[in-house]
Amino acid sequence: TEIGAVNAFAIDLQAACSSFLYGMSVAARYIESGRYKKVLLVGADKMSSIIDYTDRATCIIFGDGAGAVLFEPNYEGLGVQDEYLRSDGTGREYLKIEAGGSILPTTIETLQEGKNNLYQDGKTVFKYAVTGMADIAEELIKRNGLTRDDIQWLAPHQANKRIIDATAERMGLPSEKVMLNIYKYGNTTSATIILALNDYEQQLKKGDNIVLAAFGGGFTWGAIYLKWAYDGTLYHK
Fold first, then answer.
1. Which end of the chain, N or C, is surrounded by fewer C-beta atoms within 10 Å?
2. For the chain, what is the mean pLDDT?
3. Beta-carbon-side half-sphere exposure of residue 179 (alpha carbons within 13 Å)
4. Catalytic residue list
5. Which residues contact 104 (CB under 8 A, 6 or more apart)?
6. CA–CA dist 62, 175 (Å, integer)
7. Low-confidence ranges of the chain (pLDDT < 50)
């Protein structure tokens, strides 16, 4: 209502830090079907509301952030080209919030025991994240007949610089092709890739091949191959 989208409907899609990529998949399919002409995809998370600020393993990593992207039809072969999305519930114990859902609703006791705060087994998540993001990005590149020279940018989820570096190294990409802004915002979960695209927009050119990759709790992970649809300098403010 506040943005005047009176003919629109809204849905909520949750896939932890991979939410933006899952949302891209849904938005692109809606556009491709021809049923909808414009889809606004928003990624927003207030991580400070679920962080235990006495837990140094998590509190220094996460930040609050939000971003939005607009999807429209394209008839030049640009936009989303391919996707590779995955999930595996065996990782649920390593990155989770124990209470607050239907299995363990919020009570005074769960709050007092810190069960409504985020828990992360950093070493285990790191191992899975590097393997997941790197493997899936590499597979996406291979099945689309691309080489590292064909890729202009890697837009990774901003969870950890070591994870980002390891993924880029696996793909054979130099640091100047990797979007990085975790030092500015921290890990804003579903907003990280949107914020990175915004920060680098002026450098993006029509037709650029961009690989977006993410890994999140659950576990959820994936990669999307995108052809950028406009020169960023024309629209950046």
1. C
2. 94
3. 27
4. 17, 157, 187
5. 98, 110, 115
6. 23
7. none
- The predicted pLDDT at position 115 comes to 94
Cβ atoms 86, 140 nearer than 8 A: no
Contacts 24+ apart (CB under 8 A), 32-35: none
**Structural Rg of the chain based on CA atoms:** 18
Residue 107 burial (CB count, 10 A):
12
Separation of alpha carbons 170 and 76, rounded Å: 31
Question: How does DSSP classify residue 6?
Answer: T
Pairing of strands 95-97, 79-87: unpaired
Rounded distance between C-alpha atoms, residue 24 and residue 201, angstroms: 18
